[in-house]
Amino acid sequence: MTACRFCAAPLRQTFADLGMTPLSNSFIAPARAAAMEPFYPLHAYACDDCRLVQLEAFETPENIFSDYVYFSSFSESWLRHAEAYAVRMMERFSLGLQSLVVEVASNDGYLLRHFRDRGVSVLGVEPAANVAAEARKLGIPTEVAFFGRTTAQRLRDAGTAPKLMAANNVLAHVPDINDFVAGFAILLAPDGVMTVEFPHLLRLIESTQFDTIYHEHFSYLSLLTVQRIFAAHGLRVFDVEQLPTHGGSLRIFAAHAEATRHATTPAVAALLAEERAAGLDGPEIYAAFAERVVDVKAALLAFCVEARRAGKMIVGYGAPAKGNTLLNYCGIGPEFIPFTVDRSPHKQGKLLPGVRIPVRAPEAIMEERPDYVLILPWNLKDEVIEQMAGIRAWGGRFVLPIPTTQVL
Fold this sequence. Notes:
Strand content: 15-25%
Number of strands: 17
């Protein structure tokens, strides 16, 4: 029986069983369209003890993340989010010329450049060499490494002592969550602060965001569970903010447990109480989630079938990991969606894993004039609708698949 990756308790309770799917970012070159690709069980469990929702690890992080196709800088709303974060952190924690900011999973330098441009020293730690190379082109010093105890100790021995450590949307991506969190306890300066952003499990459940479950996301997190994990490694959560990003995320603030500079805010107790009131500390809410997932699948399939029978054309917008989970679980291929588009040139010209839907440049939508545009990165719907507003000229409409199929 599989054991919990945090507390080692046996995993018995199913949270969502999405069948067999490929790795969500394993895009296919057209020349390999007829080749086989590996499929793995996409089965999420909820731990009976610590309530960590998690997947089994079928692939190593090295195989998943060493050559990555996700570049943060292709989302304008995410860039605005990053700049606002940098400004706020500099003000709140008095970061200046003598400060060092380290970002774990720093991607293409999208966040650290805002600190660098304001005179703060920065260092990125990024496992994907191809993505780190883009950060270095911007002048962002970047270590190509997976973060954990070993990397943290090496950096600490070299004199690295960050006043602020940031980790955005990476805590869910690490299979050894204990090793990862322990690295922060090693590297963070004695009076330093760390912030971690991750999609909030409670919002995932409330909006049936099952498509955010994919093999690259090993864990699905609540404050109840994260507070317990951090405490096990000598870190104290002293503040939390709720964010609209990724369908509803948390930004937690933590420091060394023995550090007294930062008092714990009322927001921590308030959110813990909200999670307990919703039932995140018991089994029922996790058991009920699976049935709602099937309802979302049925609604989207019904829409696609009806549109096809009516002679209507549906195309996709975006090629995010969540979209690949959605399409593979629902069994929607080119027979319903002849192509999707994406702003990233790293995805254009390739095929979506599993379903083999071609990825084109956004201009293809204006050329083909579809009746419907299915927004796969639904968390960016406002940005997408603004960018593609021209489809209204021929009566085109937007479709959202989550929390249920909506035509806008």
